[in-house]
């Protein structure tokens, strides 16, 4: 059996972590590797370069979501495809990156990311600036951070990511319902929870 470990993210080492999710390449053995106050969420893989299939990307996200939602753990996510040759190099990453990981975990403590898009119907005339302002006014009070993403389509009016505290999720959902009801000519796309990729800046190289 391979010693290679696929890493999903870093979380505080608060004891045993039960993750009810299938990992990358179909792994049913999601566990943690600890060093000091930090733990990396991992599963075994054979390949150092796992294929970026839709199934694997979904599995990566599912494991992170299980950590955040089911286990109620804060997690700094790693990008897809981070594989380490055993526990030792991974523990070295946790050791050398401890200040950065700890700072990021503190910044996003008790939160996850939610995505909000508003898409205009074909041929609809929309005051983009007014809509974006109203959406932000409604969602800012029930979130702790916002990132405006690229408007990659002419019909895309709003494309934002929000950092939301777990305890504010219900209030955020209610605000989303209000926005959905306010615009007949716009289609709401509300996604998540996601790991807070847009709110952490941690560069890691697999080994």
Automatic annotation (TrEMBL):
Keyword S-adenosyl-L-methionine: no
Organism domain of life: Archaea
Subcellular localization(s) per the UniProt record: Gas vesicle
Record flagged with keyword Coiled coil: no
InterPro entries cross-referenced by the UniProt entry: GvpL/GvpF (IPR009430)
Family from the record: Belongs to the gas vesicle GvpF/GvpL family.
Protein name: GvpL/GvpF family gas vesicle protein
Organism (species): Halomarina rubra
């Amino acid at each position: 059996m391979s010693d290679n470990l696929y890493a999903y993210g870093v979380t505080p080492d608060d004891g045993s972590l039960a993750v009810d999710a299938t990992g990358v390449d179909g792994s049913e053995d999601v566990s943690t590797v600890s060093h000091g106050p930090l733990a990396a969420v991992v599963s075994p893989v054979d390949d150092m370069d796992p294929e970026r299939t839709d199934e694997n990307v979904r599995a990566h996200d599912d494991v992170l979501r299980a950590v955040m939602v089911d286990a109620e753990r804060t997690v700094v996510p790693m990008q897809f495809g981070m594989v380490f040759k055993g526990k030792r190099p991974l523990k070295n990453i946790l050791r050398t990156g401890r200040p950065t990981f700890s700072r990021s975990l503190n910044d996003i403590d008790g939160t996850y990311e939610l995505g909000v898009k508003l898409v205009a119907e074909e041929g609809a005339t929309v005051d983009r600036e007014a809509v974006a302002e109203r959406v932000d006014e409604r969602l800012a009070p029930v979130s702790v951070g916002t990132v405006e993403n690229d408007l990659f389509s002419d019909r895309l009016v709003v494309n934002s990511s929000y950092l939301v505290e777990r305890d504010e999720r219900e209030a955020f959902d209610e605000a989303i319902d209000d926005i959905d009801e306010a615009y007949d000519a716009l289609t709401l796309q509300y996604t998540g929870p996601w790991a807070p990729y847009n709110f952490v800046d941690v560069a890691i190289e697999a080994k």
